[in-house]
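Justification of computing resources. Each target in the renewal requires a structure prediction run like the one illustrated here; the chain below, 368 residues long, is used simply to show the kind of job we budget for.
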Amino acid sequence: MTQPDDQRWMALALSLGKRGLGQTWPNPAVGCVIVKGGRLLARGWTQAGGRPHAEQAALAQLAKGAAKGATAYVTLEPCSHTGQTPPCASALVAAGVARVVVATGDPDPRVSGRGLAMLREAGIEVVTGVLEAEARRDQQGFLLRITEGRPFLTLKLASSFDGRIATATGESQWITGPQARQQVQALRASHDAVMVGGSTARQDFPSLTLRGMGDRQQPVRVVISAELNVPTHGPLAEDETGAPVWLVHGPDAAPSAQEFWRKRGATLVSVGAEPSGLDLSAALQALAQAGLTRVLCEGGGSLAASLLSAGLVDQVVGFTAGVMLGANGLPSLGALQYRALDDAPRFTLLGSSRIGEDVMHVWRRVGD
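Resulting structure tokens:
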């Protein structure tokens, strides 16, 4: 049975879990708080690299016996299997908690319902579904990887008021202001990987690394290039941040290019081709199989259009500047072959805010 403060404590656990987004893959980013007599005893979240889990991190803060009779609030069903660490459900039982409140279940076949059953068999009261919609939104990357075999994909678009990302001569730095660009760094920090197409890699020589975000694990840098036509000089080939480089290419990529990038320590991912280009569904499935749960696509326009056409975009984050570049400017999206308005993908607005002199708006795919 729910209690009056359950939502308040679960909201805190959810806020803690968000700290792990982009840091814990392939594990989910979970939050946990332990409360007794209305007083917060401990809090934890899944640590970088996925371990220790949130429950273990919280319990480690307490002296033996301190959690006896307490309530644990956990944003995802506690694991029930032994991997590199013992089951979190067993740890909660051993700690003597009297009640566990869980936001949402874990569809992983190794867990799915077993963690809750383990707690109930030990005589612990279990409450589920508290702030479940919020938890599922935070966990969508992990959930999609388990249930659909692909990561959650965010498309980032930074454009002029009329939807252009460069002038007719190709000038693009900078359409949006410094505050918006810093917000993009925060967006990168909450994703496991940052992805661009081969044309963006050739034209912009992007580093795709985190800057100004403190001591955080760098995201994987993913480039989609059918022919593996990626610059062999510049940040992707030469920087020393240690950020991994994964190159997704087609079956006809030149062996010499593959050899070059292997020697640079890059991970090569080969997928099949379609008449329109690489099989992007297969590409995302391969990224998920390698462990990625959340991918941020930063362009270019052709890749973005292809992802939208394939129904693979879950979230769009737009940064709109108060400048207009006209019809001869470079559009933010490539051609989309929709004959009717009803064929176009629909997104619902989650929120908008002013970022410096620009506007940021966040949209989720209708139905998610």
